[in-house]
Amino acid sequence: MVAGYQAESVWAERTFAPLASDALKPSEKVDLAIVGGGILGLSSALHAARSGLSVRVLEAAHVGDRASGLNGGQVIPGLKYDPDWLLQHFGEKRGESLARFGASLADGVFDLIQREELDVPVQRAGWIQAAHSEAALRAIEQRATQWIARGVPAKLLSAAEVTRLTGARGYHGGWLDPRGGAIQPLAYTRELARVAVDAGARIAENTRVTALKRENAAWVLKTADGRSLSAKGVIIATNAYADALVPGLARTLLPLHSFQIATAPLSDALLSSILPEGQVVSDSRRIIIYYRKGPNGRLLLGGRGSMSDPADASAWAHLEHALKRLYPALTSVPIEKRWYGRVALTLDHLPHVHEPEPGLLVAAGCQGRGIGLMTGLGPRLVEYFVTRDAELLPFPPTPIRPIPFHAFRNIGIGAAIAWYRLVDMLEK
């Protein structure tokens, strides 16, 4: 992570078999090159290899070292926006397609784990969105009503029901979406890599792509160690770790740090009163807090943190404060794990798909739903690459439009996080 403080995720407690990493050979040629070995890149690689394409995945670090293996593991259905909004803003045809795509995302993850027999711990008791204010509760009621009208057996929750299901204090109510759940994200990412390799994809770890250029009918990718790869098409799956490889891409995204903590294993008495039925929770705050039970009887809690890399454990103090506010009984329970990863948001809170040139595809912007979204988006990108049928893409490709004054983003985002955190605290 950073010099001066060793951050370690709870997911890394598990031992994984070495990945069959395959170093890039000089001047290789493939049908599809994928830059980034996270969930999007690996989902794309698996589908492409199963479709008969030759595939190379180039990962700058190790598979699972970044956001795909460091997130909270919550699998949340839907998109940031609800079905009615999608229909209003995209029209009947595209809006309905987006709503169906969002509705399929959680099922897609759990079905893939079962179908491929992935060695991934799963808990699927549903997702609770808890309202921190009366205004938030009204918005949540509208969301739940829309999904119930679409046949989802969701349930509106009173304040008392939220308290019973979470054991947490201070919520006004919420809703329970049974489609949601949780996985072990590092195991999921590593297992995606394993089955992609078994299907014929080849993965090169510690291989940073430093240049990308169109030459005649192919794309040529240059790596930091001076090697090259020629491909008919390229998928850029770097998300929040986007750099200058695609001009302007990094300046379309707002990179944030998602910080997380894990308690020491809890006693049976505490476990019986905290999330007794195993749901995952995220609340309605502008700077959301999300939590779940983790391995070995721990409670895991996360939220947005400092824009700078942490130097010591105090960088997680805001999460420890939130934990004690929600669960006063945990005040004396030690925090044993602290970690963080980088996530990417977009200004319109929608995932973006770009095709700057034919055969060069980019997808980025998870909005807190990366596991389901990137699992589902990968096959769609591959199908579009093969068929050129734009109807297969859930999100219409848009031009790369850098955010104005992007260089000042850290100052602005840091100030906004502090302000919204204060508003969330005062709001009733």
Q: What would you say about this model in short?
A:
The chain is α+β, with helices and mostly antiparallel strands. It has a domain at 10-71 and 186-245 and 350-400: FAD/NAD(P)-binding domain.
Descriptive account of the structure:
This protein is of the alpha+beta class. It has a domain of 173 residues: 3-Layer(bba) Sandwich (FAD/NAD(P)-binding domain). The protein contains ten helices and 19 strands. The strands form three sheets. Strands 1, 2, 9, 10, 11, 12, 18 and 19 form an eight-stranded mixed sheet that branches. An eight-stranded mixed sheet has the order 6-7-5-14-15-16-13-17, with helices on both faces. Helix 1 runs parallel beside helix 9. The longest helix has 33 residues. The chain is globular, with a radius of gyration of 21 Å.
List the helices and strands and how they pair.
Blueprint: E1 28-35, H1 39-50, E2 55-58, H2 67-70, E3 74-75, H3 83-115, E4 122-123, E5 127-131, H4 134-149, E6 155-158, H5 159-166, E7 173-177, E8 181-183, H6 185-199, E9 202-204, E10 209-215, E11 218-223, E12 228-236, E13 254-263, H7 268-273, E14 280-283, E15 289-293, E16 299-304, H8 317-326, E17 335-345, E18 352-357, E19 360-364, H9 370-387, H10 409-426
Helix pairs in contact: 1-6, 1-9, 3-9
Note the main attributes of this structure.
globular, 10 helices, 428 residues, 8-stranded mixed beta sheet, 19 strands, single chain, FAD/NAD(P)-binding domain, alpha+beta
